[in-house]
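Handout, section 3.2

Students often ask what a structure token actually looks like in practice. Rather than define it abstractly, here is a full record for Acyl--CoA ligase. The first block is the sequence as you would receive it.
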Amino acid sequence: MKPSAPSGRLGNASEVLQRYLRAFSDLTSVVVVAPGRVAGAASSAVFAGWHVTDCSAQFVGTARQRTDELVFESSGTTGDPKLVRYRKQVIRDCATAIARMLELEAARDYIALINPRFAYGLSVLHSHHLAGTPVRFAKPPTTLAEWADVRESLRPDSTIYLAPHHSFLLAQDPHWRFNAPIELVFAGGPLRQSMVDALGRCFPNATVTNMYGQAELGPRISIGRSAITAFREGDVGRPLPGVDVRADPQGRISVRSPYRMESYVTAAGEPVPADASADWWPTGDVGRVGADGTVLITGRAASDINFLGGRIGLDHLRQIVRDVDGVLDVRVSAVRHQAFGECPHLRVLIPSRANRDAAERAVRIALSDNIGHAAAAAVVEVLDPASLPESGKL
């Protein structure tokens, strides 16, 4: 699984990715969807005359629509089956701003261990393409053996694009160290202090770049960079030029951005209303903005649910489970339940060699100690890194 040697602007780009980038650069319209949705999107009347691709193995359609639009899926807040719709020029402008903030260098070695069809991967594709800087995509590793293949190709002063949960895999081998300078770039989810502390033992001289964004906003909002020893959880740096970030008195973060999407659409291309004000987009996060413009994210907006006759805070459940021995991370959400109305759903990440049944028991015991009998009715799903979806997110 070693990344192949660079060939042209996009390193090891497949023919499908090369065709996508040619379409991205002209006025034709493109929709990027999961492999299983390509045929459906290609047959949709709404996408008639569009290119349709999964940025992997399929690129279909004879584009006649020269409306300069791009539609792609999001693995985050848009959910399923919503996609985001953009004017391509907006995406180009955002990608150019990202490239400048990252200070991309043609002579530097860039490796992307992320899926190119989601917002994060597309932003890497676009920014490197517009900057004329090669980047090599490799299949995201899910086992220590796969990561060992990648790390053999690492060179000093290179850059790796990663998802936050890759950190647990990269730090799994206690005997391996990379002492040379290297940049580790993260996006696609919150980067925890525990993740960076673990990486610090393997990459003691690394620089950590923490990018914050949403698929609806270009997708990048801000970019922060620090030595790995100086990393501060939640510090996502300063906004891209032209992007404004504010926090209300309750700490709720909203963004005004020239890189905002046109609208949501379904997989069939039908419009979906977006619940946001005309100027400011609520991110769903809470935090604060410093006097120098630095954005600090401290969590998600408070979300309580009615469950078994009482109110339960999802953030409270998240903290309980994160403190359980052996838990790497957890995502907590509310799902509809036939009997309970709303029910907490916990997706718990554990090391690849850990016992899932034992981990679930430990989680339920911790929940029971804090919320009593309601713990028995919570939905607990235990995963290891190899079970994560294509996006690398919980």
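Discussion prompt for tutorial groups: DSSP finds nine helices and 23 strands in the chain. How would you have guessed this from the sequence alone?
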